[in-house]
Protein 1
Amino acid sequence: MPLLAIETSCDETSAAVVHQGRVLSNVVSSQISLHAEYGGVVPELAAREHLRNLLPVARAALGEASVTADQLDAVAATRGPGLPSALMVGFRAAQAAAFVLGRPFLGLNHHEAHLYSPWVSGQPPLADFSKFQPNVSLIVSGGHTILVHVRSELAHRVLGSTVDDAAGECFDKTGKLMGLPYPAGPEIDRLAEGGNPKAYDFPRPMINDPNDDFSFSGLKTSVRYFLRDHPGLLDDTQRLRDLCASVQAAIVDVLVTKAIRAAKRLDVGCVTASGGVTCNRSLRQRLSAACERERLTLRLAGKGLCTDNAAMIGILAERKLAVRTDATLSDADILPNWALE
């Protein structure tokens, strides 16, 4: 029987129906335009939009999948990490639905779900775990940069994470310094296409450190001082493109170098990447080239599964139910700071 999954950890309201590794529907309502005028996600506004959108989105997901509520086998939702007020909307709604239907409920870690999104592909999307390999997984989103050793299905260990700004934050914050609209990451990607990535030499923080942690606050500060010392640069379209390409190259260099180095050290034959920043074209190209050079298999989450979505929550829930993972207690609460271990 199918499973309903709900995701409301930040500014996307999403519901999906999953059945035997097949994503029957994955409906996402984005709030980007709502938060753009504030230059970032406003938690209270996000929660209000989730309250407004969740029921229509869930109905749409069920309708697209041709499934009724009483046909569901289980209900799952993101438990954390995320914005507390946003998480609460989806988590409590899913808990209530499971209780009313008398079905098992699973509250899941958003980042753990990202680990399995690269294994979902095709039309309609199918989870093909027959090709699963031990891997080093790079999760790169707006607020998190995490490197994980996935030894086998549902068995993983975090190797390193950001000690300050995540890669996505660095894209958005440097973009704001350049006067670009929020979210700035996609705009930097677009402008960088016509720029010279070697035009300006920005630092690659922690790229040579022996650990697997990340730091991008220093790069952001470097861009701030660079703009201070080069007044008028932003008025020149080509120099702005060069700046975007140079900043992007610095971020991507760090991500690719650390991921490949970890894969070689751990002697795994596969690298995966997921999270919103994985939509960045340069990151996808550079990871692909590096993995080909090192003879590593690369699996990238499809762009529709990189950003926050309920399909990955549903896929993970199915895998956990298959190994008889205990249901989440009916009085369980959200875990806004739930760190992947």
Protein 2
Amino acid sequence: MKTICFYFQVHQPYRLRRYRFFDIGENHNYFDDFANRSIMRKVAEKCYLPTNQLFLDLINEYGCKFKISYSISGTAIDQFEQYAPDVLDSFKRLADTGCVEFISETYSHSLSAIKNESEFKKQVELHKKKIELHFNQTPKVFRNTELIYSDTIGTLVADMGYKAMLSEGAKHVLGWKSPNYVYTNAVNPRLKLLLKNFTLSDDIAFRFSNRAWEEWPLTTEKYISWLNAIDEKEEIVNLFMDYETFGEHQWAETGIFEFMRHLPYKVFSDTNFEFLIPSEAAEKHQPIAPMHVPHPISWADEERDLTAWLGNDLQDEAFDKLYSLIDKVQMISKEELLRDWKYLQTSDHFYYMCTKWFSDGDVHKYFNPYDSPYEAFINFMNVLSDFTLRLEREVMNNRNQDMLSTYTPEEIKKLIGEYEQKLTELKSVFDKNSNDSSKKEIYS
């Protein structure tokens, strides 16, 4: 049988509050709690809760014949804990079915994979522990932020023990080849690659409610006919999309929930497809070839590259300035600073600075708190300036403590005695000079 592999990205960033120049050095609260809470509750009610219930109903109806997978960023889970524990509970109920796989990623949904290997590995490990804590699963498959992938990144992921990784089936990489097969990393063939079928994925994620689309309205019958039209030699269709597709990008009024509710039945009755989670799909299907990706690709925008986050001077300046702090961050252990460091790395902050409005403006405006990329840049750099001051102060404090820790208590007492003696001597000299100056004034 052929395979359908459903994967959903679940992510929410910690959005920054309006942080002015005069806040630098005075206010260390960077994040907009009201906006983060209200957006989370809005998306929870429109997307997370009803869609989780829909998938739970489908699993209860079809058993393990229907399977799905998620990557939930650490920042999203943190916000579930703070603002939406009911959403977290609903994901746990899905995990308990045994029909849902949770995939590994960077904790902060960051771009660390293209900048710093040690930070990347640290975030992946933190995220893995978070998944184990809440969902009682140890991830076997990796999904990098926004499906960002290259030969180098894939090699890192393979070295970390993952057997499979998700990526984009980008045309400029695949050429004439189809994304409907399993491939391998070009450097380490032990890492299997599952590639997004962007046409069939985007038909649901982006075009479903577009009345100008020549295929509107999209029905389950029509979608099944497209699946059946795939070359019989091709083995797997990977449908990767944002979870907010359901109820948020595509409102309930569009019929998106009913489409999804009826899709499994039509798959089982009218096709030769089965649903598998990514680890099962990678195990079942043998790779047909290595995929050479010397330069990073992603699933973002028409270009399928990194220009959504690192495509202009504003983004590059902010990104380089942030990661120039990495050596100092590795010297501290203060929880508040490390938390802010994680949340400031979230890729959304750089996405808001994107100037590609002419081609992908609607996408970049989604839940964007800024009126312009320049406002996003200034706000982020103001926050980063204050964070840098706090970081440097903490590093200096640690150095002073480390210096003192090299002395025994007796040596510290001796140093204090020597300093006190030196102060007494200096005070004596000062008093003598003051008296001599007073005498000169009298005799003059």
Protein 3
Amino acid sequence: MKKSYKILPVFLCVFFLAGLALRAQSTADTEEQKLLQVMHSISSHTLYDYVKELASDKYWGRLTGTKGFNDSASWVISHFEKWGLKPAGDDGTFLQAFPNPYTLVHEGCRVVLHLDVNGGKVEKNYHYYDEFIPGSTSDSGEVTAEVIYVGYGITAPELGYDDYAGVDVEGKIILMEREVPVSPNRDPELFKKWRPYSFHQYKLENAHDHGAKGMLYNYGPIGNPNNSFRKGFIYSHVGPAVVEDVFAGTGRKYQDVVGKIKETLKPQSFATGKTFTIKNVTEHFPEGTAYNVIGILEGSDPVLKDEVIILGGHLDHLGRCWEIMPGANDNASAVAVIMGIAEALSQSPVKPPRSVMFLCFGAEEQGVAGSDYYVKNPVVPLEKTAAFINMDGVGVGDKLSALASKDFPEFWAFIDRANQKYIHRLIRTSSFANIARPRLDAARFLWANVPSISFGASGGPTNYHTPGDNIDIITPEIMEDLAQMLYIAVLDMADEEKLDFRK
């Protein structure tokens, strides 16, 4: 009997501790259930509706500087306010302003080839938008002249290279390639020497400085407002149909000429003998104002709230060129995902100890200018920015990519864990050298030493920078999966005692 009395207190103690453990486990299970309930509240239907709104005609393609962009920013802000986000822009607003010129493109643009056929004059008008798209920073006017092929349009004495040597482009129209004749992937060190000449702005300005009056830019054809404006300079983007007609009858094959430039790094410029007309109808606004939209969900921890995790993507698109460019995938899809996560975090039963910023950039399409301005004028010090998750074109397809994920394995581990546990979506990981001209907002943050991973989607038609990037191509399920995955990952990161991905 005495022995049994000794066992009883031990038994009761074990029973009591087991009960505490069960209650703790039950509490944890309940908390996870609540988190998952909020996660599943991020609905593909809601995200689709957000994209549909932003890609609608009422915002006229959201070109930064225009009323359409400003109205779309106001619409996003109305949701940020409803969810209790703190404004983090200028003077207590959600808007961070910066100067940004812009150009409107109107109907009436054309590209025409003039031919002599059997002693008569024939015009070949090219079709918008599969054969040409007006230059989004072209001046308004018309130019008719001979076309001079100038390769990549580069004048680089230190490289012993000049596409304009030996040809007279004064008053002429040039046909020019985009990028440079060397690859950043094949020879990064050589590419760095050529990099300054890869920018659209350099190419246009160099053509203008050489006296050219017009340009057929072999670029797509897609719309692109990322270029300079020069008074009196008329240009359009063209594709294979125009390029083939320029080369026809010259005794040269286009692929051979470009191949020889790349192989020898020697210019192959020549007068084509072809006469073209370029006409564009535009309005330029040199004093435009752009905005980033910035909202913050303040962290619950008195110390960690000074650190921030940023979820970002650009709100802007191309406006009209001359049709409305809806920009459903690029990049209303990312803004929709940002909004889905913002609402979920604002309703989460667990408040993130670190602050979370929701940052919708302006002027990404105009030289990645919004993110450039932000990193030079951050509202939270960059050294207090633990991570930046960028999204660009995340609304079409069934696969995700995570650019620079291999460069930040500890950062990626949070996202990968959330995906493996809850979402199970195929994600292609990669490194990112980031030595080419900036093509996405993450490039600016990486140059500023902010750990950054950038998401995109693939597996469907993107209709990149054309009127076809509309609500009809959107795959809402891919947005839902990404938003739910990042909701969990951000909560985990925000709760980590120490977060240092820079090492």
